[in-house]
Amino acid sequence: xxxxxxxxxxxxxxxxxxxxxxxxxxxxxxxxxxxxxxxxxxxxxxxxxxxxxxxxxxxxxxxxxxxxxxxxxxxxxxxxxxxxxxxxxxxxxxxxxxxxxxxxxxxxxxxxxxxxxxxxxxxxxxxxxxxxxxxxxxxxxxxxxxxxxxxxxxxxxxxxxxxxxxxxxxxxxxxxxxxxxxxxxxxxxxxxxxxxxxxxxxxxxxxxxxxxxxxxxxxxxxxxxxxxxxxxxxxxxxxxxxxxxxxxxxxxxxxxxxxxxxxxxxxxxxxxxxxxxxxxxxxxxxxxxxxxxxxxxxxxxxxxxxxxxxxxxxxxxxxxxxxxxxxxxxxxxxxxxxxxxxxxxxxxxxxxxxxxxxxxxxxxxxxxxxxxxxxxxxxxxxxxxxxxxxxxxxxxxxxxxxxxxxxxxxxxxxxxxxxxxxxxxxxxxxxxxxxxxxxxxxxxxxxxxxxxxxxxxxxxxxxxxxxxxxxxxxxxxxxxxxxxxxxxxxxxxxxxxxxxxxxxxxxxxxxxxxxxxxxxxxxxxxxxxxxxxxxxxxxxxxxxxxxxxxxxxxxxxxxxxxxxxxxxxxxxxxxxxxxxxxxxxxxxxxxxxxxxxxxxxxxxxxxxxxxxxxxxxxxxxxxxxxxxxxxxxxxxxxxxxxxxxxxxxxxxxxxxxxxxxxxxxxxxxxxxxxxxxxxxxxxxxxxxxxxxxxxxxxxxxxxxxxxxxxxxxxxxxxxxxxxxxxxxxxxxxxxxxxxxxxxxxxxxxxxxxxxxxxxxxxxxxxxxxxxxxxxxxxxxxxxxxxxxxxxxxxxxxxxxxxxxxxxxxxxxxxxxxxxxxxxxxxxxxxxxxxxxxxxxxxxxxxxxxxxxxxxxxxxxxxxxxxxxxxxxxxxxxxxxxxxxxxxxxxxxxxxxxxxxxxxxxxxxxxxxxxxxxxxxxxxxxxxxxxxxxxxxxxxxxxxxxxxxxxxxxxxxxxxxxxxxxxxxxxxxxxxxxxxxxxxxxxxxxxxxxxxxxxxxxxxxxxxxxxxxxxxxxxxxxxxxxxxxxxxxxxxxxxxxxxxxxxxxxxxxxxxxxxxxxxxxxxxxxxxxxxxxxxxxxxxxxxxxxxxxxxxxxxxxxxxxxxxxxxxxxxxxxxxxxxxxxxxxxxxxxxxxxxxxxxxxxxxxxxxxxxxxxxxxxxxxxxxxxxxxxxxxxxxxxxxxxxxxxxxxxxxxxxxxxxxxxxxxxxxxxxxxxxxxxxxxxxxxxxxxxxxxxxxxxxxxxxxxxxx
Length: 1251
Hints:
This protein is an alpha+beta fold. Helix content is 22%, strand content 25%. The protein contains 27 helices and 53 strands. Strands 33, 36, 39, 40, 41, 42, 43, 44 and 45 form a nine-stranded mixed beta sheet that branches. The chain has a six-stranded mixed beta sheet with strand order 51-50-49-46-52-53, sandwiched between helices. Strands 1-28-27-26 form a four-stranded antiparallel beta sheet, with no helix packed on it. Strand 34 and strand 35 form a beta hairpin. About 10% of the residues have low confidence.
């Protein structure tokens, strides 16, 4: 077939080319995504061409940019995100428009020659395999830029140390050196499989389907190999073959190109029959073809020579590069100015047509007669100089490649508003704030579900803190960050975790179990709150208050998340109060105090919720008709702000004399828009309300509409929970007016006011100058000789240890101010005076209660088309860091004593508290070592580098599993255009001090009774005692202790199926994951006389609708989980959960197969040293494959299990037997050899069990 010339051009060479540097084409490739031809040359310059609709020129230049000034471009490859360019020492990813995305360099890159891009069928990931004149083959993850594997390809005799060519295949990774040696490695594990010995130096090779073809310009031979039989099929003589490549649509046809510009198509089934030879008309004498590629449609062939010319031959003038072509991205079209007719239009001013009108004169006109005429000798053409870039901009500039990005300060650089739609110029790349003012850390993050299922998703990339996050994929997980707010309140966390009762759906118990998970989970594994949400859904009031989100996205956009978050907090606190009040023994928690002396008594039983959150009021009623008065106690939590839309607030209201009405329920004018109301004043008037209500008068014996109510504070709470009430536009407008007036007043006083995050960045730029001033002050003042022991408050000498404190104090109070105060001062004066202030300057000592802001929950939304997201800014107190480090060191000491086989009293270990801060923390284990037998010699309890308390950055932004440290300025910023504060919490300052010093308050008691293990009560109505399949533990003889072995397995049912979408390349992507619920849990004794006999075999009763019982894989049949139909030992999830928690807390070691997924669904965090997983126990370090339990049982034990269905007791016994088998192999020293034989046997039989 004839392939005529379609296009030829010269590629760009750049601006730094010397006379001694080569400029020819070194590599070219067709884009696999868009209609683009990429050309790279020896000068390190990259040029691209795109098809043009013009009939005179079929390709036009698209982009041109430089890659490397030192080396040539040795290979090009394209992917979804851009183009990859390989040079001698690095690989660079560039967008198709030329912007660099990343440049990856490494000490392992000595002399790179080739690369291969492998798409892993994920949304945002892929792998690059790099090799060259070096002994290392590097597998690099493009998403994290980490070296996943580094394989030494030159160690063994069959390897190669000089890799010049590399090609990919679904089964193999093919490597070749310049001498002609070809090595085939496994595509997944990169293990050496086969080699083809060299016959002569090769100039190119390619692999496709069942054939591998090489060509040699020296021997002029075309060698064809069959990779099914691993042998040479034929060798054909050709004329100076230099390049070859398979056609994309034919697995037996390839194109061979000679050095002097001839190419032809060869059919490998009959290589001697050569088709028509096509000639390339090279433009210069002595030119040789140096690069070659074929398009995916086989319609175009691209060639490049060593004189920098590019040639395209094709089947027709109008060709396509890809089967499903995508249009290339272009710059925004600049709209021309509108046309105005100066002759016919008499009404349009000339200034609207152009800023500088230009008047045209006839060619015969004499310009010297004009007044404005200047002789040319006296005129010098100059241009307006570019204004210099200010130092503030340079200091905050973020440089990516050769382009600098900086946040545009308001009013400094004018922005041009265009109406261009779908413009790539408006994309958020390079800008922290994206297309709006909301930073990326506030956006809702949804993980890659395909990678999460394979345990390949790295959550730690989004978590820049030592705290674990919460899974955002669970239904109704919008409250994750509000749960984190409650968790980081130390006294509340202690009270909730100490509560355990017998109620099945107790919200306090489930919240305590979740808090315990957050205590022990590592940061790279988000916790699931599925058990808490399960109990949450069973409460009838949840549906009545509309606290369950709809699944339909259309209905979801109609949900008012600002109102939802406030209703959730109010409901949860009242529900916890009801449940704790109904508990038989609920003493007042230590550390909870009533700071106002009063005769107020509560009729209901006290609970820890009322002790910490309750604002106790006295409601004074008076009947206007009969003047009868009476009182009634009232507990208020949380406090909701009421806005005076109709009335003007008093400036200094006394206790009970507020005139604020019912806030958002009122309607009318906006008479208070220009009246400034501080936050403290607004809170005071929201508490001390005076209103007219309808109530029953006992003296009149009837209901009246004119009963006046006045509230007086009786007792202050330890924690002030405040609902802002910003669930309507009128309340938001009220905040905007007050913030605007506050900003104006504060700026007049010389204070810095925070209204948005751009001002926060400006504030950070001023801090270095402020620190410099403090340092100069210390250098000019003589140091105090007493140092830290100086007790004089008026000492005039310099104290170095107070430098940071002075700087923090100045940053906190001297630089910025916010309408939301970081501290509140509540004054309790005589004669019932009560007021709240945000400054302590006017308060008398001894009468002030100080409250500090500890968390702010906000609802953020980037634009109208996106969903709302609830985030929380939380202040982490020093007590949390201290207690966490002590718990870590206790566990480390206990583990060290266990390894030394020292018997230690359990009570003695629990009471250890004197721990040194200089103790070495345990090392962190890798994921594949966390559940093996050898890993129990180390400890991965929390983090190897646990962060210490930082007085400067003690605020963190919690966005599900994305946690980032932020400044107090960002917390108090009030940019209501995208961030609406929903709830605020203030805590007494002295309560934090009590938490640090009071060990009783910090200690969390383990109240799980050991008798839960001996319980065999079933909720099933049809079960008979003879059908019980387990023997409960006899606590008098076989109480499990630390280090005892227990085999465990669990079965699950599916509550909803996953939703997937089919991509254009034929792969499937998960857009909504499936959700499972535990259905059966079995535990088997691992030692003793009753070894192998189960002591737990519970079927879990569920009220949720089951979508799929998965009987083939779980053994669960319809009706087994129904209390009215089941004949199994059916229990509640909480009952079985307590059994497992007791085993975990007592240090029992679990043995099983795939326990990581089991514990995740059960919502149980087990320390890695207490888990031995046979999945990782029998996994070879040379393979990624995880062997199934059935194949392990067949290979090592000779057992046939899971033939028809799965049984958790059988699986647990099998895992226990495999554990003992591994111990036996380890004793004889042949464990690794047996594992290698396991994988060899699996490959031989295709991993299928044969009986």
